[in-house]
Specification:
The structure holds two protein chains of two kinds. By secondary structure, chain A is of the alpha+beta class. Chain A has two domains: 197 residues, Cytochrome Bc1 Complex, Chain A, domain 1; 188 residues, Cytochrome Bc1 Complex, Chain A, domain 1, CATH 3.30.830. Chain A is built from 18 helices and eleven strands. In chain A, the strands form two sheets. A six-stranded mixed beta sheet of chain A has the order 1-2-6-3-5-4, sandwiched between helices. A five-stranded mixed beta sheet of chain A has the order 7-11-8-10-9, sandwiched between helices. In chain A, helix 5 runs parallel beside helix 10 and helix 11 packs across helix 17. By secondary structure, chain B is α+β, with helices and mostly antiparallel strands. Chain B has a six-stranded mixed beta sheet with strand order 1-2-8-3-7-6, sandwiched between helices. A five-stranded mixed beta sheet of chain B has the order 9-13-10-12-11, sandwiched between helices. Chain B has a two-stranded antiparallel ribbon with strand order 4-5. In chain B, 56% of the residues are buried. Chain B contains 16 helices and 13 strands. Chain B folds into two domains: 231 residues, Metalloenzyme, LuxS/M16 peptidase-like (Cytochrome Bc1 Complex, Chain A, domain 1), CATH 3.30.830.10; 180 residues, Metalloenzyme, LuxS/M16 peptidase-like (Cytochrome Bc1 Complex, Chain A, domain 1, 2-Layer Sandwich). The chains are: A alpha+beta, B alpha+beta. Chain B: One of its GO terms (molecular function) is metal ion binding. Chain B: Keywords: Signal. Chain B: This is Peptidase M16.
């Protein structure tokens, strides 16, 4: 049911907040040649239209379907105070009509063609996607090209849709104690980096957008030279290129704004935040500032960090499940997450739900201890091999989904890494040594560089709604 | 490398469809047989990718809990906690060191275990050996049971802090009462505390048996290999017998509204009553009708009335959940507390209008085109085919279920939908659950 709903911006935020097992990580980003058969060559065809729009096509003829995605290089990390969440709000309005196709027509036409569609916003990008029978691709391209520059943004559509966005925020964040903790944790970790901004935006900003704000944001970022079209499925690349030229080609390139670096100021000591909210289950989050592929001075470091995350939380045989959950029974669950494919420096985040009878202090100490061990001794050969085997296998599994393949291409291209990164990820992960994992642990898992967040549950008493509730949540 | 099997299957299907005349070509691509001890096998060869998906499904969901609410789920979750000579660490290591993915889950009707592996000889063998041992020889170690019990209690607490989960639980209890579907799959604090190791072992012995199971295989192996694998899986299971039929679901006697206080800004609302079962004679009429009412996302009537026109909610939907016995019909919404009454009124009116007047013909055509045009998407990946075959096998749907699907959807007319909604839904006897959003 939920998955049908528009806007899954939470896909990104949730992935980072929740236990990002290596499975999900690598499901997103893998490729290269393992079994040395043609099917594993990336097989991507790249074109650039004269207006600067990039087109990536990957044929996959296992079934007569196609997925088509248009990615824009704008997300919450391009926003600033007062208009936070506006990229996401604009994503909602992209379904509210152009002169040629009034509100609801986009969805109606795609539905009538048997297609599925949706969109999502994250920190680094906004993407719109349709999956259809392969011979209906042209319809999707025609509609996407139309709404790239022709939104009407009518006030009568805008007013109720912003109420929808406010309800979305209440649903996902304000009434969800774990999400509240994540939002506070994140805003505490980043002082000036835009990664401190929640993707959905602060409620006060949502309540005060104007049509003019949205119009300005649309005109600033929605241009062909800030967009990537990704098509994966049972298609002929050159035909897709011709179609793309026909529909997107006539759109003039726009003047794109300079993107300021907004590099995070150096952290000078540990930061801690406590969220007290009606809840039953405590939670601790712990984040360390680390580079990503886009920012790393040493380009092996992000791969070593990925392996570190896999050693801690790459399944039931990883350290957290084996030692903290089963052997010592300190936590009910624990996770490690790290997205190396972001635009800006990111957090390497650990999370834990204490086992019943364990305190947040003890759960936090167990996470810290796990990191200390990574610093003190090299990971074992067996652990490395396991992580690498998972990487290799997932490279195969990911090919089962045309949407998943398109997502990887779009994300890598839009953050600025380029889709060819896909071809080297597996080899780069496989090249990581135990010494390198130890080296990144020593360099980055520094107490002065971390942020710790606690969810401190306040009672949920149905008969006597507590007084804090008035002030805190409303 | 042979490619395009899956494609051929789907194309074969489309050819059948569009060459009219309804030549009943039998399920190109899907093969079905039964092992000697009665395990039903559904297999589709998909050679394009060097991977294999397996799923073994049993009538062993929480509807079989009896007085021990939570038993099915605990049993299912403990299968990989120790089996044969291996403990949980060894089992996890054996799967993950070859990149295999083990999964297990228990719903209300079904419980299943699944495996995804690459087809590299050594790797697949290790994964299969481990999987088959987990399936047939679980040991349910005492200490792991105790830990799983405590984890379940934490999961219950997590549910209790989520207004949506509280609403679901309250809704199922109210709609199904004493029927097994009314029993919470996670259990209750008391029931989970009381479950013994003997109960877990007995549950496994009774329900994880060949005649109560279905094995699904999809991937890059040929029929002979699939048969050999199926024999090994079957050999690990005692023959046993199929689980008894579930009791009939009683209709709601009187509609009522249940309010649960909760400190959330939004009210989480569920409205519904018992709906239909798998294989129900009204299945296609109700499914297509509901697609228009609230099942199709952005283009449904509920979405239009509640979200697009009034901006009352982010998520609003309706669905029939066809199950072994009558599963629920549900309409759901979450909205700021002060708007809850308005949202409920709009949803009830939308349902009443649809039920009273039936669908408009052009909208029906659009919905049918959406469903049938989208059909290739539902068979386009190995994962999707595993889901399809598991559904067919578990609910005993005909082998030509996929072939016949679009034809049956096309055959539904406005009159059939109107009549089915009249007959099957009673707006006067709805359970309405409202959690949170008090002012």
């Amino acid at each position: 049911m939920q998955s049908r709903e528009r806007s899954s911006y939470h896909r990104e935020t949730k992935a980072e907040m929740k236990h990002y097992t290596l499975p999900s990580l690598f499901l997103l980003f893998l490729s290269a040649a393992l079994f040395a058969t043609p099917v594993f060559a990336s097989g991507v065809h790249e074109y650039v239209l004269s207006n600067g729009m990039k087109v990536l096509v990957k044929p996959d003829n296992r079934a007569p379907v196609v997925t088509s995605q248009v990615w824009y290089g704008v997300g919450s990390s391009h926003e600033y105070g007062g208009i936070t969440g506006i990229s996401h709000a604009l994503e909602h309005m992209m379904f509210k009509g152009t002169a040629r196709y009034p509100s609801g027509e986009f969805s109606r036409i795609i539905a009538e063609q048997g297609g599925r569609e949706n969109a999502f916003t994250s920190r680094d990008f906004t993407a719109y996607h349709q999956t259809l029978a392969a011979d209906r691709l042209e319809i999707a391209l025609k509609l996407e090209a139309d709404r790239m520059r022709n939104l009407t943004l009518l006030k009568e559509e805008f007013v109720p849709e912003m109420r929808v966005v406010a309800e979305e925020r209440r649903l996902r964040t304000d009434d969800n104690p774990n999400a509240l903790l994540f939002e506070h944790f994140n805003a505490t970790a980043w002082l000036n980096s835009p990664y401190g901004i929640p993707v959905i935006g602060w409620m006060t900003d949502i309540e005060h957008y104007t049509v003019a704000d949205l119009r300005e944001w649309y005109d600033r970022w929605y241009h062909p030279n800030n967009a990537v079209l990704v098509v994966v499925g049972d298609v002929d690349p050159d035909k897709v290129h011709r179609m793309a030229r026909r529909y997107f080609g006539p759109i003039r390139a726009g003047n794109l704004p300079d993107i300021k670096p907004r590099t995070e100021t150096r952290q000078r000591g540990e930061r801690r935040v406590v969220v007290r909210a009606p809840a039953r289950v405590p939670l601790v989050l712990m984040g360390y500032k680390v580079p990503v592929l886009m920012t790393a001075e040493e380009d092996w470091e992000p791969y070593a960090l990925l392996v570190a995350a896999g050693v801690l939380d790459g399944g039931e045989s990883a350290r957290f499940a084996r030692e903290l959950v089963r052997e010592r029974e300190l936590v009910s669950s624990a996770g490690a997450s790290y997205n190396a494919f972001a635009r800006l420096d990111n957090l390497f985040t650990l999370s834990a739900t204490p086992a019943s009878g364990t305190s947040l202090e003890a759960a936090e100490a167990a996470l810290t201890e796990a990191l200390e061990r990574l610093k003190e001794e090299p990971v074992s050969e067996a652990e490395l091999e396991r992580v690498k085997a998972q990487v290799v296998a997932r490279e195969v599994y990911r090919l089962d989904s045309v949407q998943g393949q398109a997502h990887q291409l779009g994300a890598l291209e839009t953050v600025g890494l380029g889709w060819r990164t896909l071809e080297e990820i597996t080899d780069r992960v496989r090249a990581v040594t135990a010494e390198q994992v130890q080296a990144v642990a020593q360099r980055y898992f520094d107490t002065d560089q971390r942020t710790v967040g606690w969810l401190d549950p306040l009672p949920i008493d149905p008969d006597d709604p507590p007084g804090y509730f008035e002030g805190h949540l409303r | 490398m042979r490619q395009g099997e899956l494609k051929r299957f789907v194309l074969g299907f489309l050819v059948v469809l569009f060459s009219s005349a309804g030549i009943a070509q039998a399920n190109p691509g899907i093969e079905h047989w039964e092992t000697e001890n009665g395990l039903k096998v559904y297999f589709m060869e998909a050679p394009a990718l060097p991977m294999l998906d397996m799923r073994v499904v049993f009538r062993a969901g929480s509807a079989r809990d009896g007085d021990a609410a939570g038993l099915a789920r605990l049993t299912n979750g403990l299968l990989n906690a120790g089996a044969g000579d291996w403990d949980a660490d060894t089992i996890a290591e054996r799967f993950e060191s070859v990149g295999a993915q083990y999964g297990a889950s228990a719903l209300r009707d079904m419980a299943f275990v699944s495996l995804r592996s690459v087809i590299e000889e050594d790797w697949l063998d290790t994964a299969l050996d481990t999987f088959i041992t987990v399936l047939g020889e679980p040991r349910f170690p005492e200490r792991d049971l105790e830990r799983a019990r405590r984890q379940t209690l934490v999961a219950l607490e997590s549910q209790a802090q989520n207004p949506g989960s509280v609403a679901q639980r309250t809704f199922f209890e109210a709609v199904f009462g004493d029927h097994p579907y009314g029993s919470p799959p996670l259990g209750t604090e008391e029931s989970v505390q009381a479950i013994t190791r003997d109960q877990v072992r007995d549950f496994h012995r009774e329900f994880y048996v060949a005649r109560n199971g279905v094995l699904v295989l999809v991937g890059g192996v040929d029929r002979a290999t699939a048969e050999a694998i199926a024999e090994r899986v079957a050999a690990a299971l005692p023959e046993g017998r199929p689980a008894a039929e579930l009791p009939e679901v009683a209709p709601i006697e009187e509609g009522r509204t249940i309010r649960v206080a909760f400190p959330s800004e939004q009210a989480h609302v569920l409205i519904g009553q018992p709906g239909m079962r798998r294989g129900d004679p009204d299945y296609y009429a109700l499914f297509v009708g509901n697609h228009m009412l609230g099942g199709s996302g952005f283009t449904s009537r509920l979405f239009d009335e509640v979200r697009s026109r009034r901006g009352l909610a982010y998520s609003v939907y309706s669905q029939f959940v066809p199950m072994e016995a009558d599963g629920p019909f549900i309409m759901g919404v979450q909205t700021q507390g002060a708007q809850a009454d308005e949202a409920i009124q709009v949803m009830r009116n939308t349902l009443a209008e649809f039920r009273d007047n039936g669908p408009a013909r052009d909208q029906l055509r659009a919905s049918q085109r959406n469903i049938t045009g989208g059909f290739p998407l539902r068979t386009a990946s190995n994962s999707a085919m595993v889901d399809n075959l598991a559904l067919m096998g578990f609910y005993g749907l005909p082998l030509d279920y996929l072939d016949a699907y679009t034809g049956k959807v096309e055959a539904v007319d406005a009159k059939a939908i109107h009549e089915a909604f009249q007959r099957r839904l009673d707006p006067e006897r709805m359970i309405i659950v409202i959690v949170g959003g008090e002012n």
